[in-house]
Amino acid sequence: TNAQGEREADFINCIALKKTAENIINYLSKGSLAGVDGRLKSRSYENKEGQRVYVTEVICDSVQFLESKSTNSNQSQGGIASGQYQPKANHVAATSQNPFVNMNDSIDISDDDLPF
């Protein structure tokens, strides 16, 4: 937060693949608050003017949604957020999101139905 009480933003290039990318597309929008775990990758390329451009990007291993859906939609509609961020309901948590925690029955799955 700056001296005027406004949240400052840094825009860092991130690369997400597969399911992580799908979740970002489906659940985040411009201005959403997100936490990213990953590794840095530096590369360079030559632009149209023939100049060497150096880029540092984050290769995302995981992305956490740090705002509730209602907070996120209020911000995208120009509303004012409360300033308290709650994890999104579909935030990936190791134990609390396991749909099979209270399941006592076994699941019958043929080996032919498995994708691996």
TrEMBL record:
Highest taxon of source: Bacteria
GO biological process entries: DNA replication
A Pfam family per the record: SSB
Any coiled-coil regions, as ranges: none
One GO MF term attached to the UniProt entry: single-stranded DNA binding
Chain segments carrying region Disordered: 69-116
Keywords linked to the UniProt accession: DNA-binding
InterPro entries to which the protein is assigned, alphabetical: NA-bd_OB-fold (IPR012340), Primosome_PriB/ssb (IPR000424), ssDNA-bd (IPR011344)
Composition bias type Polar residues, residue spans: 69-104
Protein name: Single-stranded DNA-binding protein
Originating organism: Staphylococcus pseudintermedius
